[in-house]
Amino acid sequence: MSVIADIAATYRGPVPVLRRRLAGGQREDRALAVLMAGCLILFIAQWPRLSREAFVTGADLNVLMGASLMALVFILPLILYGLAGIGHVLCRAFGGQGAYHSARMVLFWALLASGPVFLLNGLMQGFAGPGLQTSLTGLLALAVFLWFWLTGVVAVEKGQL
């Protein structure tokens, strides 16, 4: 299936999609591509907020976008690799059976698959500004990401994938 079809299918049930994506074997190039695509979507999701911030405060938009690019596309992937490793080690300590590659792929796929909700949150931050509706979409984005990630971690570490 295509990536977009897999993202849509993840909202119906993350485990079958993860099973299909992990069936291709341990390919680090795929894991890195999924991670970078997810980070790029997060970067794009920040554009409306950064534009609003530049307009309201008079800050230079290029500087704001450069900082966001550095944080989300260059630094966040390193943090996520570490988070996947720490999560895997913790699961191993409690009897997890999954492979490190699977733990990474689950985290990276959760980031990419939750991208549409993060894009919605970015639009709310840019157009509506701070407020209840923006907080609720941010909470929704976090909940969707955690749902995809934790569901995948449980399946991987129980040996279901």
Highlighted features:
161 residues, mainly alpha
Write a structural description.
With 161 residues, the protein is mainly alpha-helical. Helices cover 83% and strands 0% of the residues. The protein has helices at residues 3-12, 14-22, 28-45, 47-57, 61-93, 100-113, 115-127, 132-157. Helix 3 packs across helix 5 (61-93) and helix 6 packs antiparallel against helix 8. The chain is elongated and about 50 Å long. The model has no long low-confidence stretch (mean pLDDT 94).
Largest sheet: none
The best one-word shape is elongated
The rounded Rg comes to: 17 Å
Order of helices and strands: HHHHHHHH
Question: Helices and strands: which structural class?
Answer: mainly alpha
Residue share in β-strands: under 5%
* Low-pLDDT segments, ≥5 res: none
Chain-averaged pLDDT: 94
**Total helical elements:** 8
Which helices and strands occur, and which strands form pairs?
Elements (H helix, E strand, L loop, with lengths): L2 H10 L1 H9 L5 H18 L1 H11 L3 H33 L6 H14 L1 H13 L4 H26 L4
Give a short synopsis of this structure.
The protein is mostly helical and 161 residues long.
